[in-house]
Please model this.
Amino acid sequence: MKNVTDFEDLLKKKYGEKGTAQRDKYDSNSLAFRLGVMLKKARTEAQVTQEEIKSINRGLKDFEQGKIHSHDTARKIYEKYL
Model:
């Protein structure tokens, strides 16, 4: 195969060597994007909606802030997600 370029060579040409500010920013953004895609896929496979994720996060935030609810109270707050 003629004129085949390694992907790493393309990255070096456009963003510089690993360890440079521009390349580190690219690598960080690339990883964040890939993780987002993986999370979305996992959430879809588990059939968990964004609304359910928000409810879970709300519950975790409440817990971190010391807003611990009794089982009955928590059930009333979050029952639409159960």
The chain is about 70% helix and 0% strand. Residues 49-82 form one domain.
